[in-house]
Design goal:
Helix 2 runs parallel beside helix 10. The protein has 10 helices and 14 strands. It has 2 domains: 155 residues, HAD superfamily/HAD-like (Rossmann fold); 114 residues, Hypothetical Protein, Haloacid Dehalogenase-like Hydrolase, Chain: A, domain 2.
């Protein structure tokens, strides 16, 4: 039976400092070298995902931005992308402005990734941007008006604020045709929530289904921790939650493994490989 293993990054494969530990990297690289089919699925953008995954010898395509992008690390090309219609982007920006909120827009043109903003009035977003600039050398482009970017291959919109400031917008998005949204607590700062908006043609479930069909996999095992992993749970044949996972995710899982602080995913993989070796 051809089997694929796929893990979320933040709160799952990464430690509480958003790093892939040397222990996890070593275990996973050995398993991959021995023939294990392993990949990742993340809400992160290419700018941060590529940096975090340095040293992990991924050979299979992996998913970014909640399934908006599927990237082949060997061919260094995007296999799948879901672009928001220009009119839809204008509607989103109008709603965000009416709520007195700020956002970042992400675009992909000719396989080049861009991050746009027109305001840094939001303290949570300002911190979000600065942390990515300093830690991952990510580039953000300031523009006069985000609406001028609406036709520039926009694939994602991100807001980060206290829950009460975003709840109303999240509810209103349910009636906006052509979009899907993920709304969940920031795993690195419980004071804030993330609201991520993208095409309804994208999700972790759809992206994984694409990879499953492309690779001819008969069985997929997933690992996750947060509410935006629910589509991943639905797409997998078996699913394991790390011990630090949201209670709802733990309840949906087939089992609970060690926490991300304890290299839970890597230890699970290591024990699996050891079990397979004993059976041979």
């Amino acid at each position: 039976m051809k089997q694929l293993f796929v893990s979320d990054l933040d709160g799952t494969l990464l430690d509480p400092q958003a790093k892939l530990t040397d222990r996890s990297r070593k275990i996973l690289n050995q398993a991959i070298a021995e023939g294990l089919d392993f990949t990742v699925s993340t809400a992160r953008t290419p700018g941060t995902a590529f940096k975090i995954l340095e040293g992990l010898n991924l050979r299979l395509p992996f998913m970014m931005m909640n399934g908006v992008l599927v990237y082949d690390p060997l061919k260094k090309k995007y296999l799948r992308k879901a672009v928001l219609d220009e009119t839809v982007v204008m509607v989103l920006l109008g709603l965000i402005k009416l709520k007195g909120l700020s956002c970042f827009l992400y675009g992909l043109e000719q396989d080049t990734f861009y991050a746009y903003y027109d305001s840094v009035d939001s303290t949570p977003l300002n911190y979000f941007r600065n942390e990515r600039v300093m830690r991952y050398d990510k580039k953000f482009t300031e523009v006069e008006d985000l609406s001028l970017m609406a036709g520039r291959g926009i694939i994602y919109c991100v807001l980060r604020e206290p829950k009460e400031k975003l709840s109303g917008l999240y509810r209103e998005l349910s009636v906006v045709k052509g979009v899907k949204a993920e709304f969940y607590r920031d795993v690195y700062n419980e004071e804030y929530y993330m609201l991520e908006i993208f095409s309804d043609q994208a999700s972790k479930k759809k992206a994984l289904s694409f990879l499953k069909k492309k690779g001819g996999y008969e069985f997929v095992t997933g690992f996750g921790d947060n509410l935006n992993d629910i589509p991943l749970v639905e797409a997998c044949d078996s699913f394991f939650a790390v011990a630090n996972a949201h209670p709802d995710i733990q309840n949906m899982a087939d089992g609970v493994i060690l926490s991300n602080e304890e290299d839970g995913v890597a230890i699970f993989i290591e024990q699996l490989m050891q079990s397979r070796e004993r059976e041979q």
